[in-house]
Specification:
Order of helices and strands: HHHHHHHHHHHH
Structural class: mainly alpha
Distance between the termini: 16 Å
Oligomer: single chain
Number of helices: 12
Largest sheet: none
Radius of gyration: 24 Å
Number of domains: 2
Length: 325
């Protein structure tokens, strides 16, 4: 992109940051993140330009404003969870919707296939798992698989496995998104076949109350990881006005932020699966409380809060002011 076009594309935003300062720490963090991205681009393609000097000065002023008062609320970690991550999530809500639709589509296809082919579930879940579950159903304990082994060991194994799978879903976005879609296909098909199996046994509602105690956070995280993979793929395939390598760098940076944000969610899902799901006969109200709390958290933090924060940080552009030339 030519320097003039770069300036014209961003000047109104810079003028707002320069001439309409804010004391709100969340908004300051958002402005600083935007300026760092612009400054990185300017340093790469216009290292000796006045616009690079201008952006460096402007970013420095906002940086000093952020760290002027060393309050706990303005610490890097808190700002990441309170501001940076939600802003990134809101930026890619469309990709999140795509990931959700892809996953649900494959899950529905799997459920439909299982309903029309009795061998489909065994082909997806494996004969050993089906035989073990059949035996547990005969014993009156259809979810006994979650009761085996030590809770702590099970928690650690599940946490590591889930985090590994989610990062693989993200990283495979580098294959023009095909790898991410393939992983969403695998996980969606497994869920569809798995859930249909229990409904076909008359255990559908019970499976929801038991399995989705941990499954709500786990499946939601897989979908969000898929969105991060789509972000990575989009930055590579559709770089826009940026050079492909620079666009990929920006996409990878945002995708990594999304993945870091998922780590606590996966850990909580593993904790629930290792320590809570095994109590398959817990009161219905307790199961519903955990389910509703998990769903509420996902909807609030990854959908509602980012939208509200994004609306709060958007500024009305000023009409007149000086700008770099």
């Amino acid at each position: 992109m030519r320097e003039g076009q770069f300036i014209q594309q961003n000047i109104e935003k810079w003028k707002t940051y320069q001439y309409e300062p804010t004391t709100d720490p969340d908004e300051m963090a958002n402005r600083f993140t935007e300026l760092v991205n612009d400054l990185g681009y300017a340093k790469t393609f216009y290292p000796q330009s006045k616009v690079t000097q201008y952006l460096n000065k402007l970013a420095s002023e906002i940086y000093l404003g952020i760290y002027k008062n060393k309050k706990e609320e303005s610490s890097r970690i808190i700002r990441f969870w309170k501001t940076e991550l939600p802003i990134v999530i809101e930026k890619y809500h469309r990709e999140l919707l795509y990931s959700f639709l892809i996953f649900v589509f494959f899950a529905l296809v799997a459920a439909f296939s299982a309903a029309n082919d009795q061998s489909f579930v065994r082909g997806v879940l494996g004969n050993d798992y089906i035989e073990m579950t059949e035996q547990n159903i005969a014993k009156g304990d259809p979810f006994g698989v979650y009761k085996g082994g030590d809770s702590a060991s099970m928690f650690l194994w599940i946490a590591v496995n889930n985090i590994s799978v989610s990062f693989l879903i993200f990283i495979l976005g580098i294959l023009a998104g095909l790898g991410t879609v393939w992983m969403l296909f695998n996980n969606g098909v497994m869920l569809g076949a798995f859930q249909y199996y229990f409904f076909s046994k008359g255990l559908g509602w019970q499976s929801v109350l038991v399995i989705w105690i941990h499954g709500t956070l786990e499946i939601s995280s897989i979908i969000i990881a898929g969105a991060a993979g789509i972000v990575l793929a989009k930055s590579l395939v559709f770089p826009g006005t940026y050079k492909r390598l620079y666009s990929l760098k920006l996409g990878a940076k945002d995708g990594v932020k999304m993945m870091i944000g998922l780590v606590p969610v996966f850990i909580m899902a593993a904790f629930l699966e290792g320590f809570v799901t095994r109590y398959s006969h817990m009161p219905v109200w307790l199961s519903l409380f955990i389910l509703i709390s998990s769903i509420g958290f996902i909807i609030w933090y990854f959908i509602i809060y980012p939208v509200r924060l994004g609306g709060k940080t958007r500024m009305v552009q000023p009409e007149n002011s000086d700008h770099p030339s």
